[in-house]
Amino acid sequence: MVASGALFALLGATFVGASTQRISGMGFALVSSPFLVMVLGPHQGVMLVNFLGCCSSFMILAQVFKQVEFRKVFLVLVPAMLMTIPGAWVAARVSGPMLSIGIAIMVILALSSSFLLRNLKASQGKGLAIGAGAVSGFMSVTAGVSSPAIAAYAVASRWPQAKFAISVQLYFFVLAIASLTAKGGMPQLHWIQWTGCAVAMICGILLGNWLAPKIPPKLSRAFVVIIAFAGALTLMVNGLLELNA
After folding, report:
1. What angle is formed at CA 228 by the lines to CA 101 and CA 183, rounded to 5 degrees?
2. Which of 28, 116, 227, 228 has the largest CB neighbor count within 10 A?
3. Count of domains in the chain?
């Protein structure tokens, strides 16, 4: 049987993550990763984040595919896909509590670094794109969180928010597939959990479609940051408690 508390946490994280992704163009992994890892453990939790993030991005991408800026996407996508290989090696060799703590630290550092990028001068260099893609790919397969590094690149390169929010869906979709392939598996869930996640994701995207035109971008970004920080801190505490048990 599936515990009701764990099921509600799983569905809630999926629902909020999907709606956030639709509203702001990113945020599914940031919002859902800490909570899914708490429910399912580091390895299964991150794989589920990758899989659900892939589905969420695909559902959004299907609506906006013609507006994607393919050249900019592939510039960051290639190094990201390459870095999923060493990332998968690290994820398979780190113990559960330590990986939970590591995931929490990576999320917190990534979120914190985004605040330091507001005053950067515009940079269009390929080196920045390659570096951001590499960091994003490594974090995708180890922590299930790929968006902070790409968001940082978007800020530094002055990628317009509206075009970025559309184009990045292709990036998240392909990178999630690469991350799952590097790990060589799919998350193992009960059919009730799979069904619940599918319904929660569809409802979240529908809510996001309705809310997107109504919510100011600054407010939606603030919501992502608050939820992600709270989840990461909770995950870190749980990891520390397991480590000391």
Report:
1. 55
2. 28
3. 1
